[in-house]
Amino acid sequence: MPKFPEPIERLMAELGRLPGVGPKTAERYAFTLLKRTPNERDRLAKAIVEAGNTLLTCSTCRNWTVSDPCPICSDPHRNRQTVCVVASEPDLLAIEHTGEYHGLYHILGGTLSAADGVSPNDLTVNDLLARIRKDPPREIILAIDHTVEGETTILYLARLLLPTGIRITRLARGLPIGSEIGYADEITLTDALRGRRETPTPNTAEK
């Protein structure tokens, strides 16, 4: 038997599908929403529906946008010789907020994880390769979290990109192991961007 009326149970079930939202959090969110005025709930519902109906994926960098290419990819003032590869949209926004980076981006859509069944085919790796074959940059920055999954992704991409002859760098000082780019402050990210270094390939890492 459900504890609450069926509409509330359905609302909690849908909220519980969001990442990081457990049963207790879903319950709290549900009752918080119910306490809002009908107009407030309507605005929220309308915003969700409109976002889903109007947003599309940039064919170049894979970021969410209302026009293709997105404003960053179509900006003539961006440095087109540098591509910063990030795992997610929040990572892109975090780097943009530093004001330090003025190049282009590519969003992978996640990181490699054998435990979660995430393989290169689940990411936009092939899109990245096709992109740099068409218009090779001088440098690719691998701005990916310093986690086990992130390090695995960095080594995989470094091995894949080595034959291109493009300079491959990664974020350096300021980001401790286990940190997440999307949660780093602007000063830390600025230091990491300025202190980026060459990404070792599997061969050089063994020496």
- Separation, N- and C-terminal Cα atoms: 63 Å
Content of β-strand = 5-15%
Question: Total strand count, please?
Answer: 7
Q: List the domain count as a whole number.
A: 2
Task: Note the overall shape.
Answer: elongated
If strands are numbered along the chain, what order do they take across the biggest sheet?
4-3-5-6-7
Number of helices: 9
Q: What is the helix fraction of residues, given as a range?
A: 40-55%
Mean pLDDT figure: 90
CATH top-level class of the largest domain: Alpha Beta
CATH architect. name of the largest domain: 3-Layer(aba) Sandwich
Radius of gyration over alpha carbons? Answer: 20 Å
SSE pattern, N- to C-terminal: HHHEEHEHEHEHEHEH
| Structural class estimated from helices and strands | alpha/beta
Description:
The protein has 207 residues and is α/β, with parallel strands linked by helices. The protein contains 9 helices and 7 strands; from the N terminus they run αααββαβαβαβαβαβα. It has helices spanning 6-15, 23-35, 38-54, 71-74, 89-98, 125-134, 148-161, 186-194, 202-205; strands spanning 56-57, 64-65, 79-86, 103-107, 139-142, 167-170, 197-198. The strands form 2 sheets. It has a 5-stranded mixed β-sheet. It has a two-stranded antiparallel ribbon with strand order 1-2. Helix 5 links the parallel strand 3 and strand 4 (103-107). Helix 1 (6-15) packs across helix 2 (23-35) and helix 5 packs across helix 8 (186-194). The longest helix is centred in the N-terminal third of the chain and has 17 residues, at 38-54. It is elongated, with a radius of gyration of 20 Å. The mean pLDDT is 90.
